[in-house]
What does this fold into?
Amino acid sequence: MSGTDQPRTRLTPPEGATPPVRHPDAPAPGELLGAHYDGCFGCGTGQPHGLHLEARAGDGVSITAEFTVKAAHQGAPGLAHGGVLATALDETLGSLNWLLRVIAVTGRLETDFLAPVPLGTVLHIEARVTAVHGRKIYSTAVGRIGAPDGPVAVRAQAVFVEVKVDHFIDNGRTEEIQAAMADPDQVKRARAFEVNP
Ligand SMILES: CCCCC/C=C\C/C=C\C/C=C\C/C=C\CCCC(=O)SCCNC(=O)CCNC(=O)[C@H](O)C(C)(C)COP(=O)(O)OP(=O)(O)OC[C@H]1O[C@@H](n2cnc3c(N)ncnc32)[C@H](O)[C@@H]1OP(=O)(O)O
It folds into this structure.
């Protein structure tokens, strides 16, 4: 790789990175987070074939989540599609930002697939922020088959990049943005981001 083929940033935090700070108003450990947007493929209830991933706050800046592999999520017959598994990890990692009260998008996501995940499996995911450096948030996730201490099937390392709410307003389609703004819970959440940076 050379020039523009190089990744923007390494997955290991640079010198000067600091430990993440859990926001004082973050949901208590064990609390269900709920969907951040009804139309989200990862967590939204309005997506019939979505992942319907359920995330809970953990201790520190960590999240646990469960995702059940359904027929619509197959790649090979009877096995979860790798991209769908990466999505489940991405969604769980994205939920971590709610504990920091920061809005951030995935900049880089590296996934290791260690074991196939059969249809019907409940994938138990745990994700954690390891460090913060400027707008960059470094995090890791692991997905286990069948139980929180089950065999490891997937792992990920990620860098999320903090953005302003304008990122969504400027880049999203007007129709969906207006619908999201009309959802009282979304407005509350967007406000919370803006008054509690
Ligand atoms: C209106 C109602 C809406 C309400 C919304 C309210 C709340 C929303 C709540 C939650 C929604 C949030 C997420 C959804 C949750 C889960 C879903 C899973 C997450 C995703 O699925 S999300 C979709 C996929 N994701 C993208 O769609 C990103 C596309 N992309 C961009 O939008 C830009 O590319 C961006 C913003 C990433 C950067 O652009 P930029 O211009 O702002 O930043 P800039 O270039 O200045 O870089 C600043 C520092 O970040 C480093 N950096 C930059 N890019 C990097 C990269 N790719 N990898 C590693 N490091 C990177 C630089 O190296 C520099 O580091 P340093 O400061 O050390 O030099």
User: Anything to note?
Assistant: Helices lie at 82-100, 166-171, 174-182, 184-195. The mean pLDDT is 93. The CA atoms of residues 69 and 167 lie 31 Å apart. The beta strands are 54-57, 62-68, 104-113, 122-133, 136-145, 152-162.
